[in-house]
Design brief:
With about 425 residues, the chain is α/β, with parallel strands linked by helices. The chain is built from 15 helices and twelve strands. Bound molecules: nicotinamide-adenine-dinucleotide. The site of nicotinamide-adenine-dinucleotide has 23 residues, from helix 8 and strand 7.
Length: about 425
């Protein structure tokens, strides 16, 4: 057994035991000695409160029926409804959803949003499904979850391979079942249905707000920083665009097909236009093409991980050639990778802080829907910048005060908020 396995091995948690859930628990154990939490509360926080597994039958366009396993995990409801994305991906599992739900709890409490964490997903290959099949899948998955989601219970949002349209289908299915329009059941929906301005850009823009704040603290000049971004979807695509718009040099980007690199910097407008036309970065002209693993090792100042989990590992961390690693995705650095980056004095901006822009504007969307009163884009952007700066400053100060990593500090800040609420409420009945 490795140290990590020993740290989290417990037969009581076998149901959720996957590499990602171990990572989430190991991070929790690394933070707990610095948090203000007694052991009985810590033990409650090691378990998700509720885990739901459903089978989703979908009639394929050719006529036959296929069944997809699907999940929804709610980690903590002590501070309010649970909140978290829904992903469609071939690797979705109960343990993956549980890990992502745990991180959502720390993210929400770190940002002082009145939510706990949740995550859900359907194990499928979304690229192999037609829009009509995706709609049937989404509507049946929503129907299966009717008893556990709700505007005061659990509020879904987009994640990998789900988007505004997916949220619109969920909102419609839920609303048809209860008999009236319930926009506040999901966030990240189209503005026409009560979605928020700036939600689409919020995670990527928030990533860059956090990078800018870190550069200020480190005494770095933000313009001119050489950046590489893995992932060119909602988070990575927007983050790359924001970096370029603020005069950082984006040298490399990637999607599932691989990466593109230019030492002179990429023309992001042209790259976006290519992806809009071709759906992929593959065959983009006049640049160097690299694999995703080569992209991670390109020399740069700032490496933004905005694709998926488990990208920087014990194997490749010794070769990462960046000064700052930025977690736009959830869980992109393994425990072993994290330890090696720390040894090499490469600073990591942790996911629960760095990609919290999405859930923060989701919270703004929910508040606007509940109040039926909508805010301007500038107001939303300014409120987001304020929330992220406040969280960043608290994390930085805690990290200096206790001599711990930014990740440990972010988790300690989040855990303390949840633990305080659990202590005050006690155990029912
Ligand atoms: P997305 O589906 O819009 O984009 C994902 C990107 O990663 C795409 O460019 C895809 O081609 C690429 N990708 C997929 N598999 C890959 C692989 N095996 N290797 C390399 N690249 C691959 O998803 P997103 O919403 O941008 O989410 C990305 C990450 O950010 C996820 O970890 C998600 O949980 C996290 N996140 C998203 C949000 C949000 O608001 N969308 C908020 C917080 C965190």
């Amino acid at each position: 057994m490795t140290d990590v396995e020993e740290l989290v091995a417990d037969e009581g948690r076998l149901e959720w035991d996957t590499p990602l859930f171990r990572t989430a628990l190991a991070q929790f154990e690394q933070a707990i000695p610095y948090a203000d939490v007694n052991e009985s509360i810590a033990e409650r926080l090691r378990y998700p409160e509720r885990s739901v597994m459903v089978a989703v039958p979908v009639r394929r366009d050719e006529g036959h029926v296929e069944v997809f396993p699907a999940y929804r995990v709610q980690h903590s409801s002590v501070l309010g409804p649970t909140k978290g994305g829904i992903r469609y991906d071939p690797h979705v599992s109960l343990g993956e959803c549980a890990a992502l739900a745990v991180w959502m709890t720390w993210k929400c409490s770190l940002l002082r949003l009145p939510y706990g964490g949740a995550k859900g997903g359907v194990r499928c290959d979304p690229r192999a499904l037609s829009p009509a099949e995706l709609q049937r899948l989404t509507r049946r998955y929503t129907s299966e979850l009717m008893g556990v989601i709700g505007p005061q219970e659990d509020i879904p949002a987009p994640d990998m391979a789900t988007n505004e349209q997916t949220m619109a289908w969920i909102m419609d299915t839920y609303s048809m079942q209860v008999g009236y329009a319930v926009p506040e059941i999901v966030t990240g929906k189209p503005v026409a249905l009560g979605g928020s301005l700036f939600r689409h850009e919020a995670t990527g823009a928030g990533v860059v707000m956090v990078i800018e704040r870190a550069c200020q603290r480190l005494g770095w000049n933000f313009p001119g920083q050489r950046c590489v971004v893995q992932g060119f979807g909602n988070v990575g695509g927007i983050a790359a665009q924001e970096l370029a718009s603020k005069d950082a040099a984006v040298l490399g980007v990637s999607d599932i097909s691989g990466g593109i690199y230019s030492e002179a910097g990429l023309d992001l407008g042209a790259v976006r236009a290519w992806v809009a036309a071709h759906g992929t970065l593959e065959d983009y002209p006049d640049v160097q093409h690299v694999t995703n693993s080569e992209l991670l090792e390109l020399p740069c100042d700032i490496l933004v991980l905005a694709a998926l989990e488990g990208q920087v590992t014990g194997e490749n961390a010794p070769r990462i050639d960046a000064q700052l690693v930025v977690e736009g995705a959830n869980g992109p650095t393994t425990i072993e990778g994290d330890a090696i980056l720390a040894e090499r004095s490469i600073l990591v901006l942790p996911d629960v802080l760095t990609n919290a822009g999405g859930v923060t504007v989701s919270y703004f969307e929910w508040v606007q829907d509940l109040g039926r009163l909508f805010w301007t884009r500038d107001e939303i952007r300014a409120r987001l910048a304020e929330k992220l700066a406040d969280a960043f400053d608290r994390v930085w100060a805690l990290s200096e005060e206790k001599g711990i990593s930014l990740r440990q500090a972010a988790l300690v800040a989040g855990i303390n908020e949840v633990a305080g609420a659990l202590k005050a409420r006690g155990i029912y009945p």
